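Hypothesis: this fold can be encoded by more than one sequence.
Test: take the structure tokens below, design a sequence, compare later.
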């Protein structure tokens, strides 16, 4: 069973990481655009 838990944890970590990257990409671009607007 420990191996199954390890595999499950690894999959969950990969899923969470990809989700975080997607969220940071969508919100990151908006944040940068807002900063550019503020600078103008």
């Amino acid at each position: 069973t420990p191996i199954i838990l390890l595999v499950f944890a690894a999959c969950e970590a990969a899923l969470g990481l990809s989700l975080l990257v997607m969220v940071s990409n969508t919100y990151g671009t908006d944040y940068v655009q807002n900063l550019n607007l503020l600078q103008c």
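The chain has one domain: 1-34. Residues 2 and 8 are 10 Å apart (CA to CA).
Hypothesis status: open.
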